[in-house]
Amino acid sequence: EFRKPEDFFHERMAVVEPANAFPNSPKLNGADSLSEKDLTPILPLKRELLELFSAEEISARLSISDDKENFYLHFEFPLSGVTGGGKNFRWTKTYPKRDLIYIDREVPVIELYPNFRRAGWKNYYLYYENYQSDAENLATDIYFVAPFNRDGNFLANRFTKKLDAFPESLIVTYNPPPYLGKAPFEVGVILLNKPQLLERNADLTWKIGVDFGTSSTMIFFAENQNPPQPLNFKPHLFQVTASGGARTQTYRHFIPSQIPARVDGSFLSIFHLLNAGDLKEILPLIDGHVFLLSSENTRVFEQFAAHIDANLKWQDDDRQRRKTAAYIKQICLQAAVEAFSNGASDIQWNFSYPTAFSQAQKISFQEICRESVENTPNFYSESKAAAYHFNKLNGKAGNFAQGAICVDIGAGTTDISVISGETPRIIYHTSIKYAARQLFKPIYDNYELFADENVLKGKFGDDTQRQAVIDADLREHSEKYLADLKFKTGKEQIKNVLQAAQFATAGLFHYLGELVKILHDYGHYREEKIPHVFVGGNGARIFKWLTGGAELDGNIYLNVLEKIFVEASGLAGYKKFNLHLSP
I need a surface site. Which of 191, 213, 332, 406 has the fewest CB within 10 A? Predict the structure, then answer.
């Protein structure tokens, strides 16, 4: 083909504020002349140049200079020469400063996830948002981006697009203000640095365990044979634009740019639907995303309430299950990013589910998990998973020697395993839909008595959203509320609320006692002594509230639970009631 040098360059150059507006673009020779004026150029290169050169080659061959009147763009074309020996041809394009296109709107938020490359990894997401208040009309005097050689509509005030590879460059389209009477037109490109290339460590395998809960989800991981530990997600965002404070708002519609670590690695099970309509498939991060609710963003949560689900686990209609699938796919994607960013060569996936699931719910959940990890995971009932955990608690092998009941109090279900036998084994396990939502209900219904009265001033679509806001507040401030509780237990209202919660918890212990009695009467539970009781799960926090924030050992209320449990079980022969709470 015959080409003239000017075929590869736009006639005018666009500039934006501030300087260094693209922090992950290659540094060009001579670009300081623009930086000194607090400007960043959008390189006026046409698509044709990107078809011939990589971003690295372009950045090495491109330079900028200026004088009083003009900016000059220089490009070194590699030509074969008449002898075939090859020689660079330096060509210069002049851009008069009076003809520059000044794009005055604030810098849009442009991010890529994740911020690494790895052989075989094909899950990248481009996020764009310009915070235009009118969602129906395209923002003007602002620029939009699209990956080079990628079809589709990228002219939208906010979008997330899935890519199969990390883009080398982004094509920039400018939408001028209405008074110019022009349609959007391409003005150039943003070249991108290559993110880190991660190597596989053939000797490193991650085991990841996912406990998808009614109110919150917890993910743990173990490297090879090391003990498991909580998995905290990191942002792993590749920042394309220096968008300032607007970048802190990515949690509204995408991956948060800041994710505070939690000791237990948990986060609330909340899904935010982004695209309305009758979607046959809800794609993670594109059509909806995991909303990380905290006590600081409850007003935003309230704003989005009509499109938020905080009760994913127990939904049965097909649309809700699609949301559940998108939620699980996203958290598995983020967990895989953590594993691979640490060099893991392989992941072994494990999921837990409540025995209270119907057969249809169980089959649906397991299929969703298989699709999410594109692999064959292991599945454990939550009741058995709790027993495996407590059997290894504190590295002891004799936790169950006297017989035991393991209780995982979640938000929606309490999952129970009963252990008996000279070689301890699970003789019965079950799941009941009586859990933290019921135990805490008196406290939830009267939350203003314990917490800041401003916490729940918003209006929410249903009780699950109200509970989610309370859960977010409790996760961050429960220690303070419990410390204050000892000063409040003299109030009649407080007494009545705690007594109602105590009564609800006593009902659970009566059920546990009856369960042991029936199993003993049928000869399945062989011990004659009262079993040890091991309690974990989010609902285990109830004991701290019931004791008025005091220590558990020797507490009068726990003596009441002990008597109820012992009476219902019909067993005796014990010196001390052993109640063990998971840390």
Answer: 191
Mean pLDDT by 10 residues, the chain (583 residues): 92 95 94 89 96 95 95 94 86 96 94 96 96 78 93 91 96 94 95 95 96 92 94 97 94 93 87 84 94 87 89 82 94 97 96 91 94 93 91 72 92 94 90 93 90 66 82 86 86 92 95 96 92 91 84 77 93 83 82
pLDDT of residue 488: 86
pTM of the model: 0.92
For residues 486 and 494, give the distance between their C-alpha atoms in angstroms, rounded to a whole number.
Answer: 11
Residues 6+ apart with CB under 8 A from 380: 350, 351, 352, 353, 388
Query: For the segment 345-356, what is each residue's pLDDT rounded down to a tens digit?
Result: 999 999 999 988
Cross-strand partners of 208:
221, 349
Q: What is the dihedral of CA 316, 319, 325, 331, to 10 degrees?
A: -110
Long-range contact set of residues 457-461: C-beta below 8 Å, sequence gap at least 24: 458/298, 458/299, 458/301, 458/302, 458/305, 459/302, 459/305, 460/302, 460/305, 461/305, 461/306, 461/308
| Cβ proximity of 295 and 477 under 8 Å | yes
Could you count the other beta carbons within 10 Å of the beta carbon of residue 199? 10
Q: 405: which strand partners?
A: 418, 533
Cβ pair 93, 225 in contact under 8 A: no
Q: Where are the alpha helices (DSSP H) in 191-293?
A: none
Cα 422 to Cα 406: distance, rounded to the nearest angstrom? 17
- The single residue listed with the structure tokens 């009441």 is 560
Q: Could you give phi then psi for residue 165, rounded to 5 degrees?
A: -145, 155
What pLDDT sits at residue 277?
A: 72
Which amino acid appears at position 254 of this protein?
Answer: F
Q: Enumerate helices (H) and strands (E) in the chain, giving the number of each.
A: 13, 29
Amino acid letter for position 332: C
Residues 352/219, Cβ–Cβ less than 8 Å = no
Q: Is the dihedral of CA 140, 146, 151, 152 positive or negative?
A: negative
